[in-house]
Here is the input.
Amino acid sequence: MLLAESGEILAKRVVGILGVCVNITKQIETPLTSIQSKISFAEPLNVLVVDDSATERALLKAMLERFGLLVIEACDAQAALDYLQTTQDSIDLILMDIQMPDINGYQLATQIRELESDSFLEWQPIIFLSGQHAPESIAMGIECGADDYLTKPIDSITLLAKVRAMTRIAEMRRRLIKTQETLSRQAHFDELTGIANRRHIFSLLENEISRCRRYNCTMSIAYFDIDFFKRINDSFGHQAGDKVLQAVCAVVELELRKVDMVGRIGGEEFCIILPECKLQNAKAIIDRLRKSIAAIKFDSKVLNSNVTASFGVTELQKNDDLTSLVGRADGLLYEAKHGGRNCVIGRV
Ligand code: GH3
Ligand code: MG
Ligand code: MG
Here is the structure.
């Protein structure tokens, strides 16, 4: 029974291969038609061909290379998975067979889509090239995550057109992701200084407060504001003021620990989150930062004096929520301003 079945499969494969051979050989020998020469690729694309038959891979390779595409061959599903997970090169399209030993094409497509959804792989278009013509096989292929399904023998113009369509979708997707990343950066970070914006730092603070509640740990925050900043703008111009804001933020980022977070609340006012930090320790860290800001040397064309800032520091208490914690830090900053500026006032 088993033998008979494998014999039948083998026979179908031989017929399929012969069909592909005849078809491809015919097309390789003929010159490019006008349609073929119109379908072009801006740059060479990398196509991964997964097929256990060396003959079919070779034929497909010849067909694709004729159109300037670069072909990487995988002799089975495991080789394809290993390649996709280790390569530094980007793959633009995957062409795969269905009937393969160990892991078949359906399983391979499913595994590739799982790796992509777990962010271990970038999304790639998948086209099945199969000798199985049954509508159920096509439906199954698409269900497993493939984007198209061509039946053997493969017509080279159809394949070329499908490759073109798929790579166009992949390119659109890449552009969409880039736009999303830009929008996300703009939504979370301050354009001038590159640090978290008000919304983002408050969201990080909310998370940090929840983390402290869950794990019964502590944290401190600091609010700070640059002293007499309006004078800098008035005397040296708004551009100089912008440079001062950038320089202060660069020093803050350099001075703080990796786990600490800083955000711009507005104008020249900032918030620092110090996870796992009790008040005494926070005050020491922030006082060091205060000294570093006061020590910034500016280009005399930007500013011919030093810049100082005032700080309010406080530690999270049992009954605190974001509003009460931030309110206390802001009140302490106000005290620091009225206590002569360029100082740190810390209390719980
Ligand atoms: P204090 O010591 O009491 O904090 O005085 P100050 O002059 O720093 O405070 P004030 O609030 O009077 O002035 C802040 C100024 O910051 C006014 C505003 O125009 C300026 N400012 C706000 N955002 C920016 C910015 O992005 N760039 C520049 N250059 N200036 C800004
Ligand atoms: Mg100020
Ligand atoms: Mg201010």
About this structure: DSSP finds twelve helices and ten strands in the chain. Confidence is low (pLDDT under 50) at residues 1-11, 14-22, 24-30.
